[in-house]
Write a structure and sequence with these properties.
- By secondary structure, this protein is mainly α.
- It has a domain of about 130 residues: Alpha Horseshoe (Serine Threonine Protein Phosphatase 5, Tetratricopeptide repeat), CATH 1.25.40.
- About 70% of the residues lie in helices and about 5% in strands.
- The chain contains seven helices and four strands; from the N terminus they run ββαααααααββ.
- A two-stranded antiparallel ribbon has the order 1-2. The protein has a two-stranded antiparallel ribbon with strand order 3-4.
- α4 packs antiparallel against α5, α5 runs antiparallel to α6 and α6 runs antiparallel to α7.
- The protein starts with a strand and ends with a strand.
- The N terminus is likely disordered.
- Pfam families: TPR_1, TPR_2.
- This is Tetratricopeptide repeat protein 1.
- Keywords: Repeat, TPR repeat.
Length: about 200
């Protein structure tokens, strides 16, 4: 029998390594398929366990990014169904680290961000979806819904910040018998700068 040497490894060993890799990938795919069945049956915790087994097997195999990213995205949808949106975001992020153009992971992460009222992050994910797939109507409709929500949240945060600043200003000025209401800020329409005047 002739054995061909390549980089110090025999052809037989390389073939055996390839066969072992295929076997491991098949086992990972089987665990993923079992997870899919459990997911369809509404057994999300059991599905999570199967996807985790698939990930552990795949982590031992080179070039297993595709199955790993799918398992992370599948774990994300399980967490979403369980209402664990922080976990959904983490799993989608792991899937996207392995496959940056994975549309399902982007969409799922955006939906989880929206549930947690992280509107800016949801918008960023939806814009990435449109960048990758300009004809994606779901992303376009989501952007139309999310942008006003994000603007409303920014305005609310601005009002809360102003209220806190006034409260802090009043605590300091109160020592001198004054309040922030004694000061009036007037914006110059030409320059955009403000002038502050004191009133009794």
């Amino acid at each position: 029998m002739v054995v061909i040497e390549e980089d110090g490894e025999s052809f037989e060993d390389a073939l055996t390594d390839e066969q072992m890799r295929e076997k491991a990938l098949n086992q990972a795919n089987d665990a993923k398929a079992e997870g899919n069945k459990l997911f369809c049956a509404g057994k999300y915790d059991d599905a999570l366990s199967q996807y985790e087994i698939a990930l552990q097997i795949a982590s031992e195999v080179q070039s297993s990014e595709e199955i790993s990213s799918m398992c992370h995205a599948n774990r994300a949808i399980c967490f979403s169904k369980l209402g664990k949106y922080d976990e959904t975001i983490k799993e989608c992020t792991k899937a996207l680290e392995l496959n940056p153009s994975y549309l399902k992971a982007l969409l799922r992460r955006a939906e989880a961000h929206e549930k947690l009222e992280h509107y800016e992050e949801a918008i960023a994910d939806m814009k990435k979806v449109i960048e990758l797939e300009p004809s994606n109507d779901q992303a376009r409709k989501s952007l139309q819904r999310l942008e006003p929500l994000a603007a409303e949240k920014r305005e609310k945060m601005k009002e809360e910040m102003i209220a806190k600043l006034k409260e802090m200003g009043n605590s300091v000025l109160g020592r001198f018998g004054m309040s922030v209401d004694n000061f009036k800020a007037v914006k110059d329409p030409n320059t955009g700068s403000y002038s502050i005047s004191f009133q009794r």
